[in-house]
Amino acid sequence: MFGPASKDNAVEWVKIIIFAVAVAALIRWPLIEPFKIPSGSMEPTLHGDERLGRGDRVFVNKWIYGVRYPFMKKRIWYGEDPQRWDIVVFKNPEPNAAHGTLVKRIVGMPGEEIQIRNGRIYANGKALELPPSMPDIHYTSAGVYGVWSDPEHAIVPQGHYLVCGDNSGNSKDGRYFGWLPNENILGRVACIWFPPPRWRDFTGFTSTWWWATLVTAVALFVFWRLFIGRSVHLRTGVDDTVKAGDHVMLNRAAYGLPMPFTNLRFSRGREPQRGEIVVYRPPSGGDHEFLVGRVAGLPREQVNMDDGRLTIDGAPVVTQPELRFTPADGAAPYGRSKSKEYSLVPEGHYFIVAENGADNLDSRSLGWIPRRDVVGSAKLVWWPLSHARRLVPW
């Protein structure tokens, strides 16, 4: 039911995995990275639990404050300045801490005199109002930074911030380990992405038309890829129209709506037409996951290829331009023998040939191709661009 294993298929999977890992690394370094909440210090905003499958997972926007050099605290360039009430992920400045990476909320800005008393935060003597998006937090006067009134523990140095957990009474945060340097900040928490019932956007991006456009585009692409089309890199060719190494775009729904990841179909669709270029799976497996050729013989037709010319039920097939097929060797009996076993196309099968099939990678040696193994109709060559062209039947 699933596609046969092959050496080419294995190599292609290795390439895909290497490419995926490289892309993931490039995304995680400067753009966005997932992070698991390790503790309950940000309750109720973020649920934390170290156990497997527990705790919120968040995406961290690493681009917004500027990109850091890999494995270093120094930034290549600086982006936006962190803002009060931002939820940030950062490297713990406390040496030998149980958690090397933490998530907290910025409450004190550079140059401010911060005091925490009576459950509230005071900046330069003025009580701060919590934004509507935040829970009603009672900040405890634990620790020393932002609590003691001497300048060393009350005035936030330039380039530094005071960070606190929303679960103030159960959070070891900046009140204990001190002012957080900008260089320690990895990025801003953008959203909770797992578990699904906990989904939450902290940026407001999901309310914009950009988000709606992105989701629509992704949904359409996934639907198209699963049910309509796909690109196939061919290891074999047909003729000068489709060569080995070409990337062709298929219409997979032409012969019925495909069932993803199988060679089954939800609906039957139309029948392949004579002269149509199709991509199919070799019925016996082999070294190739996909082959390409033209449909030459239809079900219940008697086919013969005499001296490189195709005849159907004894009548020659006229092609535009006129084609002569490379003669097959003696090990390729289909379409050569007069016996019905090798000349009469069975019901539900097709005789598919490549005009340059000297290596016998077509129906002359593989036999009749079942309809279920015909992946789709090849519509165009899209890569390389120098060979891009629309594909038409004979």
Q: What are its keywords?
A:
394 residues, alpha+beta, 6 helices, 22 strands, rod-shaped, disordered N terminus
What report would you give on this structure?
This protein has 394 residues and is an alpha+beta fold. 15% of the residues lie in helices and 26% in strands. The protein is rod-shaped.
Topology of helices and strands:
Layout: H1 7-28, E1 32-36, E2 57-61, E3 87-91, E4 101-108, E5 114-117, E6 120-123, E7 126-127, H2 151-154, E8 160-164, H3 174-177, E9 180-181, E10 185-194, E11 200-201, H4 209-228, E12 229-233, E13 247-251, E14 277-280, E15 291-297, E16 303-306, E17 309-312, E18 315-316, H5 340-343, E19 349-353, H6 363-366, E20 369-370, E21 374-383, E22 389-390
Antiparallel strand pairs: 1-2, 2-10, 3-4, 3-10, 4-8, 5-6, 6-7, 8-9, 10-11, 12-13, 13-21, 14-15, 14-21, 15-19, 16-17, 17-18, 19-20, 21-22
